[in-house]
Amino acid sequence: xxxxxxxxxxxxxxxxxxxxxxxxxxxxxxxxxxxxxxxxxxxxxxxxxxxxxxxxxxxxxxxxxxxxxxxxxxxxxxxxxxxxxxxxxxxxxxxxxxxxxxxxxxxxxxxxxxxxxxxxxxxxxxx
Length: 127
Known about the structure:
five-stranded antiparallel sheet, two-stranded antiparallel ribbon
């Protein structure tokens, strides 16, 4: 398999295919994910990086103008500042980042940690 320390080389390739400012955002998000979550598995699914613990907890996708971070059980996240968007999917919540200035490391780490706990079945703490 194409993995090193939980990181998938296919995700390296995916990141490298984007414009420099999008690559910078994706790389920063990826570092935050691996800093926040021990033993997370990274893989390409639906043509985008997906991060898995017990189940799929989050993904990253990119366009020419922004990077989207999606949480599969995002409706259970605490979002008092109303930063995440609610797309058509009832469970999914997304965050769009157009620059590194949009990235609030502490908030993203909090959501990632909540997503991991939700994945472990401790979601009652966040409902």
